[in-house]
Amino acid sequence: MNQTHIHLLITHLPIFGSILGGLVLAHGLWTKSNQTKIAAYNIFIISAIGAGIAYLTGEAAEETVENIQGIAKNMIDEHEDFAVFALVSLIILGVASIGGLFLTLRKSALTSTAAIAILFISLISFGLVARTGYLGGQIRHTEINNSTTTTQGQGGESEDDD
Known about the structure:
mainly alpha, 162 residues, disordered C terminus, 76% helix, 5 helices
């Protein structure tokens, strides 16, 4: 297993972790369960670590695919540029989650306020990391960006109205 494999495997963790953690945190806020909030914070911390690993292995993944026929360099660049925003947001989410974890364990009066702020950060992070994943998917999965779909009938004729 090389860095490209690791990149492709780990990139899903921050995407699903940020939204799953958000759902768990929302449930913890609703039920007023500190244990559930702690679980959400742990998910966010793991997601932030995953984002760091994905970013660090991204260069090796780029070197693997950049010379494959049909790969557009501009798609790689767009994915790489947007990944910085996703990484920063997930680092902020991870650090905020460490703070939220600390406040929750200390039974601070700020526990709920911090949880609401962290939930908001998680939603922003999810949006950024999902967009990054979408852009990364377009590098090899050109069917994602096929905006000119035509229905083909038998014999190769288009079924569009003339």
